[in-house]
Amino acid sequence: MYLSNLHLESFRNYQSLAINCSKGINCFVGKNGSGKTNLLDAIHYLSMTKGSLNSVDSQNIRKGDPLFFIKGEWKAAKKGAGKGEQVQVAFQPGQKKLIKVNQKEYEKLADHIGRFPVVLIAPNDTDLIREGSDGRRKFFDSIISQLDASYLENLMVYHHYLKQRNSLLKQYGDTRRLDKTLLAVYDEHLMKSGQLIFDSRRDFTEKFEALFSPRYQWLSGGAEQTKVVYVSELSETSWKENFKKAIDKDMALQRTTFGIHRDDFEFLLEEEPVKKFGSQGQQKSFVIALKLAQFDITSQVKSFTPILLLDDIFDKLDDDRIKKLMELVGEDDFGQLFVTDARPERTMTLFKGLKKDKKLFKVEEGKVEEIDF
């Protein structure tokens, strides 16, 4: 499937915008701060019901305007595959966010996740390696949630009861009284949903790692051995046993100290952490390979290619990695690409020779104009 058009009203720095997209390659060029990344973020909203840059919806409304509105139409890549599907996202402070497909509103926003998948590669992706476990969990949770609706449901249940349990522990800190009956109810819900999440993460990591390693070797041009390892306390012990053991610590710290919310994913290169021992080039190859493996596994499960968003990454890559990416996007069955670049001449050089349907857009101060390649 591909996005055939995009319409914005009062989103970020765009007062009003309507463009028709190529089903192949779409390049947005312009100075930094002109609004190129905001266009990719609007596509992310249509897919994931939230932005990739700022999850606070009210902060994505154009200054001085009462609400924002995003609309796009997805079409099947093959001719004669039926009508397209129109997606609308609207948000006004004080009201719930509205997501519609073909004018029909969702009862739950979560039902939309995974229907129109996207993969975003951005300059700050190396944060996945350098920063803490929270970002890595969110990365993998996002992928699995787009592929498995039951996983997202279990994740929402788990975090609901985790919040309730932590609130109960905080209440104990204030009153020195603990409702053990209510605690047992929360524990039961956490154990049930948490076990399902653990099983899904473990199984997914095995499949993902098998796709990731070849992508890394392809990008790096070497034979270095890589691993993505799922690390969880549940791998070595049982829920019930550890909830009992941890209760004194939980009461002292007023938070839940055992569970899948503490899981991590280790990134290894030649059996050593990439975070500590990987060069800058190796870390870049690692994160791009992670995103390409996300692209691969999504394509396998969905039986169609997700949209790939490349946000201003060429300045961060050397010529060899750029060449590899161009080989990928030039493939006939690759799918739709949206890319931003602050250097129009570079984009022209990289994409002009590709024999694919493509469009070039000049972005300037919230205005977008299609120009010739």
TrEMBL record:
Domain of life, per lineage: Bacteria
Signal peptide limits: none
UniProt keywords, alphabetically: ATP-binding, Cytoplasm, DNA damage, DNA repair, DNA replication, DNA-binding, Nucleotide-binding, SOS response
Annotated ranges, domain RecF/RecN/SMC N-terminal: 2-346
Major subcellular site: cytoplasm
InterPro entries cross-referenced by the UniProt entry: DNA-binding_RecF, DNA-binding_RecF_CS, P-loop_NTPase, RecF/RecN/SMC_N, RecF_2
Gene3D superfamilies found in the cross-reference section: P-loop containing nucleotide triphosphate hydrolases (3.40.50.300), RecF/RecN/SMC, N-terminal domain (1.20.1050.90)
SUPFAM superfamilies, per database record: P-loop containing nucleoside triphosphate hydrolases
Keyword ATP-binding: yes
Function noted in UniProt: The RecF protein is involved in DNA metabolism; it is required for DNA replication and normal SOS inducibility. RecF binds preferentially to single-stranded, linear DNA. It also seems to bind ATP.
The protein's name in its UniProt record: DNA replication and repair protein RecF
Organism: Imperialibacter roseus
